[in-house]
Amino acid sequence: MSGGAVDVAALVVTYNSEGHVAELLDSLPAALDGLSYSVVVVDNGSADGTLALLDRRDDCVVVRSSNDGYAAGINRAVRSSPPAGALLVLNPDATVDPGAVPLMLDVLRKPGIGVVAPRVREADGSLSPTLRRGPTMGRVGGLSFTGLAAFTERIEDPAEYEAEHEVDWAVGAILLIDRECYDALGGLDESYFLYSEETDFSLRARDQGWATVYTPAPGAMHVGGGSGESATTHTMKIVNRVRLYRRRTDDTRAWVFFVLTVLTEVRRGVLGHRKSWPTVRALLRPSARPPMLGASEAFLPR
């Protein structure tokens, strides 16, 4: 690590991450091989042994915070880091392969690229399908089983992961972001609290001429579900999808998207997805929405 300006500032937000974050931090020296870097971990109020674990280490700066959301944690980590040309956003339940970050940085330095996503694998070594298409009316209805791009946000085809190419957005477990791009967008949008912040960032970046690019050479692993998904987090995920779509379109289309979202969650509930029923209630009753979203005033979430 370095005490002055660095090539890469690694940013981690923890929340009850005792079981994973040590492996991530252990992977970083080799992953950043040859680069100067810093590591800042913002802890969003963990109640397990995460802070005790972090306090025993000397390879990161630890910032204690209340839980005001993932995006807020990343933004706080940026403010607590030294000047850097690139920002490495990492989930605590990820690890990065040796030499991966220099390969990502080579791609990021190409003109017009604002975000770089590597090839990610699951804990069992299989491909983790982290690439996504942008939200559209056709993709709201839970018809991903068709495999058709018009109806599918999640990109499953292994062939799409073989070559470097531009994508709409990628899951934010491991991303390298150009600092100039980050500053131009004013950082991550903290109003989402959790979920959709990386989608919003890549789409806003594209609006301003910055591409998100997937590259297969650097590798990483993401366990997934390090903090678990509850009915509340599922509701946040779905409500935020509606909010994101509304912010990027007109009210008429947003209302249709909202209705289709409700119908999709009802369908999922009928098929046995129990977390969908609290989500349906929250969609139809603004007061039942997670208060941290600040989306309880209007029927159509803002």
TrEMBL record:
The keyword Transferase applies. It comes from the Bacteria. InterPro entries: Glyco_trans_2-like, Nucleotide-diphossugar_trans. It holds the Pfam family Glycos_transf_2. Residues 11-128 form the Glycosyltransferase 2-like domain. Keywords: Transferase. GO terms for molecular function: transferase activity. This is Glycosyltransferase, GT2 family.
